[in-house]
Amino acid sequence: MPKKSAASQSWLSLINIDKVYSSDKQRQAFSLFTMIAIAIIVITMLVVSNYDVYSPILTMSLIAVNITIIMGTVYFIKTAKLEVVALISMGIVFIMCVALTYTGGKENTALYWLMFYPVVCFASLGVSRGALLGASLLVCCTFILYGPDFGQVEYGGVEKSRFLASFTLVFIFSFIGEYFRYKSHMAIADITLSQTQDAYTDQLTGGANRRFITAHFLKLAAKTPENYLPFSVLLLDLDYFKRLNDTYGHDFGDTVLIEFTKLLDSQFPMSCVKARYGGEEFVVILPKETAQAATKIADDFRQCVAKQAILTNDNKRVFITCSIGVAQVNNIDDYSQALKQADENLYKAKELGRNKVVSKYS
């Protein structure tokens, strides 16, 4: 596969693998809201059944947690900002865990409730933030359990050491699992992106191919029409290409196609989409350009091509020309009809003697 030029990178940047990333977001959302649902139920039951046993600090902390995560869920429904909701939810649960450790809960059983935190934290926030919050909770609990007396409940020595050992192990293995899951996910994403780019790349010229236009660009333009519509379609065809192949050989014909692709990259803005549509035929899409403006742009390019000489193997200078048909797309659904119109205009350019640009404004 040919090396991609810097100019050709612009169309590659339009390729995305949102489906791969969205599946990971769904996993994060499912983990977070499963935790939220369980937390709301458990916390409500604990407060209702033990409000006369719990200290006021713990009771208020539990109620605050419930209110916060419910508000976070509502905020997510309205905004779909998963990372913000996850960070707020896990932050308020962090505070609840600290309050549990400080007060001891019912009959000093608070420490048992903390074991879930690293697992959900990594699943909801990822490696970096999960590690930060998990490690912070471990430090806070260690300080409460082994630090100076500032009103916290007293735990047994064996109970404290076993809790810290167990929590540390859960934290470490949760970190290992999430870290390598993330690495695997990113590796799969890179492979998927590379395969998708290869599928949309013309193997000879290194530029975009027809599939990129029909399978990707049109969907992208339909999704964000404000960035592209109206756009103009230029259908370009190299004149007398068969004669060039017959006269100078197919290797020279390949060279012509490669050099013509380089001209497209250098003469049209990076915002334009350039693709080899098949054989010696190319398509250029000019976002936010009317057919009238595109006709002038196409004619400037036609003149530029006519001035370029390509050297054969024996250093003979060969000049090439191209014919261009132009049409305008106002709605994505009209693309096929506009391409047909551009093809008809290209045919007229050939009939007029080639090396012409034809549109309704020419």
Give the topology:
Layout: H1 9-12, H2 18-50, H3 56-79, H4 82-103, H5 117-146, H6 157-199, E1 208-209, H7 210-223, E2 231-238, H8 241-248, H9 250-267, E3 273-278, E4 281-287, H10 291-306, E5 309-311, E6 317-319, E7 322-329, H11 335-351, E8 357-358
Parallel strand pairs: 1-3, 7-8
Antiparallel strand pairs: 2-4, 2-7, 3-4, 5-6
Helix pairs in contact: 2-3, 2-5, 3-4, 4-5, 5-6, 8-9
Enzyme class: transferase
Pfam families: GGDEF
Keywords: Membrane, Transmembrane, Transmembrane helix
Q: Helicity range of the residues?
A: 55-70%
What order do the strands of the largest sheet run in, or round the barrel if closed? 1-3-4-2-7-8
- Label the structural class: alpha/beta
Proportion of residues in β-strands:
5-15%
Number of domains: 2
Q: What are the secondary-structure elements, in order, as H or E?
A: HHHHHHEHEHHEEHEEEHE
Poorly predicted residue ranges = 1-8
Catalytic activity: 2 GTP = 3',3'-c-di-GMP + 2 diphosphate
EC number: 2.7.7.65
Transmembrane segments: 29-51, 57-77, 84-104, 110-127, 132-151, 163-180
GO molecular function, one term: diguanylate cyclase activity
